[in-house]
């Protein structure tokens, strides 16, 4: 697994979505944001966060959403 | 849809919110390919998505959430081994239970019209679910 796909895997984990829907949902959100999941970079992730937030809001409760966004921001910033 | 009916449906949705998770669990349990396969978090997150798209439609907010939810949840369930037939069974079981609950919570003056709207919405939703499942099955 290369560095970029490892970042995608970590973003999927950070999303708080269940394993059932997380890969499809994160892939679709990243594509919607103009990002290629297999070549995801921290800069891409930071740019895609508003689109990811809108999508996660469909599935997650407010508390889960706040935790997911905090972790995803940290991941994009290289702090996680 | 009139503004009064819209508000009556939104009120009914809010009044049944606490019961909807139990209905969703029951629908999963009544669907052989799903029974025992999905945990509380799976069911709750899928229910959140469904509630969001239903509220969006009642509120006249379009179909963006519906398309997103069906476009992510259905391929995920198919990839997990669910057949289109199973998805139809689970979906129809859930919306039938939910329509019954919602119908009972509608005020008498809006009950008939509300039930017709819900039947049309749920019918279209089931159509879209099975279409997405068949598409996801394609190699």
Largest interface: A-B, 14 and 21 residues
Shape of chain B: globular
| Radius of gyration over C-alpha positions of chain B, nearest whole angstrom | 15 Å
**C-alpha termini separation of chain B:** 41 Å
Distance between the termini of chain A: 19 Å
As an assembly, this protein is heterodimer
- Low-confidence parts of chain A: none
The CATH homology group name of chain B: Globins
The CATH class of chain B: Mainly Alpha
Number of helices of chain A: 4
Major pleated sheet of chain B: none
- The total strand number of chain B stands at 0
CATH-defined topology of chain B: Globin-like
Number of helices of chain B: 6
Essential attributes:
heterodimer; A: 80 residues; mainly alpha; B: mainly alpha; Globin-like; 6 helices; 81% helix
What does this protein look like?
Chain A is an all-alpha fold and 80 residues long. Chain A is 70% helix and 0% strand. By secondary structure, chain B is mainly alpha-helical. Chain B has a single domain, classed as Globins (Globin-like). Chain B has helices at 3-15, 17-29, 40-58, 64-79, 84-105, 108-137. In chain B, helix 3 (40-58) packs antiparallel against helix 4. Chain B is globular. The N and C termini of chain B lie far apart (41 Å). The relative contact order of chain B is 0.16. The A-B interface holds A 17-18, 20-21, 23-25, 28, 55, 57-61 and B 38-39, 41-42, 45-46, 48-49, 52-53, 65, 68-69, 71-73, 75-77, 79-80.
Indicate the topology.
The complex is a heterodimer of chains A (80) and B (139).
Chain A: H1 3-14, H2 22-32, H3 42-59, H4 62-76
Chain B: H1 3-15, H2 17-29, H3 40-58, H4 64-79, H5 84-105, H6 108-137
Helix pairs in contact in B: 1-5, 2-3, 2-5, 3-4, 4-6, 5-6
């Amino acid at each position: 697994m290369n560095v970029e796909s490892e970042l995608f895997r970590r973003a999927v984990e950070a999303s708080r979505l269940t394993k059932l829907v997380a890969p499809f949902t994160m892939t679709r959100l990243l594509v919607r944001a103009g990002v290629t999941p297999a070549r995801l970079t921290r800069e891409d992730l930071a740019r895609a966060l508003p689109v990811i937030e809108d999508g996660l809001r469909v599935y997650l409760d407010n508390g889960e959403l706040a935790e997911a966004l905090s972790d995803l921001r940290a991941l994009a910033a290289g702090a996680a | 849809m009139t503004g009064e009916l819209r508000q009556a449906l939104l009120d009914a949705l809010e009044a049944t919110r606490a019961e909807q998770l139990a209905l969703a669990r029951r629908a999963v349990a009544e669907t052989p390919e799903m029974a025992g396969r999905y945990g509380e978090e799976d069911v709750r997150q899928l229910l959140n998505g469904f509630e969001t798209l239903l509220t969006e439609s009642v509120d006249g907010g379009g179909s963006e959430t519906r398309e997103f939810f069906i476009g992510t949840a259905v391929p995920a369930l198919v990839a997990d081994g669910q057949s289109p037939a199973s998805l139809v069974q689970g979906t129809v079981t859930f919306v039938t239970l939910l329509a019954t609950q919602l119908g009972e919570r509608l005020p008498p003056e809006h009950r008939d019209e509300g039930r017709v709207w819900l039947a049309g919405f749920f019918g279209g939703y089931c159509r879209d679910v099975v279409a997405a499942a068949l598409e996801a099955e394609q190699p």
